[in-house]
Amino acid sequence: MRLNQSVIRRLSTLLESLHSQSCQIDESNTHNKSHRLVENNNLFSQYLFSSQSDKYSDYSSEIKKKLSEFAKLYSKSNESEVKTTLAKAALAHIEQQLSALLTAIQSNSIIHDAAKISYDANTKARKKRFSHATKQNNTHQNLAKAVLYNSHQLHSKLTEHHEFERRLLTMISDRESKILRSRSSALLNNEVLALHQRLGRCRKAIYAIEVEISKAKKSHKN
Q1: Structural contact between residues 76 and 169, judged by C-beta atoms closer than 8 angstroms
Q2: How many Å apart are CA 37 and CA 39, to the nearest integer?
Q3: What is the C-alpha to C-alpha distance for residues 52 and 136, in angstroms, rounded to an integer?
Q4: Domain coordinates of the chain in residue numbers?
């Protein structure tokens, strides 16, 4: 198995940094009112993490445990071909988890900015409901139908972009895994850079759609 302790140390160093960031972000999110709209939702799918939580630190802790298990498995990987195969699979999964966690941490502010728009809109709508008892039913119903139709289209578009985001993350993880095993990684590094640029554009589109969804909800409640 072409791997050395320096790779494990590098991953451990990166993970310690991500775990520290995760704890800080979790603490900050608890003081963010808009976090109420996104809390209690799992950050990742059950296929990527066994943890089910809205706390980043729970996922970084899971990776730390997996990396510790991998280090023990790697120390015995030369004993048999089966153990070598298992070690390679474990490392690939850890790298995928690290990439997903890093991306999620970088997106935390975007997610909460969109949530804040929705939170502020909901707060304003509640205040208006206290001051305005009724509105014309027919006009409201027609507007609601139009908003709901538009909201349905936006959610479909959002789902498509999230799927595209997931595919990009998988591609990035695959390239980064190959870099660790490649002697000449210049081309792969360029591919990873290009994929990250596409991922950035995808996330901007996701944020724009989420803002439109929040506006649609606001219009519906007004």
Answers
A1: no
A2: 6
A3: 44
A4: 1-133, 138-222
Q: In the chain, how many H helices and how many E strands? A: 5, 0
| HSE of 80, CA atoms in CB hemisphere, 13 A | 4
- Nearest residue to 7 via CA among 99, 127, 91, 107: 91
Tens digits of residue pLDDT in 117-175: 655 566 666 666 665 555 555 555 555 555 555 666 777 777 777 777 788 888 887 77
Between CA 202 and CA 168 the distance in angstroms is 9
Q: What is the pLDDT of residues 196-208, one digit of tens each?
A: 888 888 888 888 8
Q: Taking the model in full, what pTM does it have?
A: 0.50
137-181 and 81-131 helices, crossing angle to 10° = 160
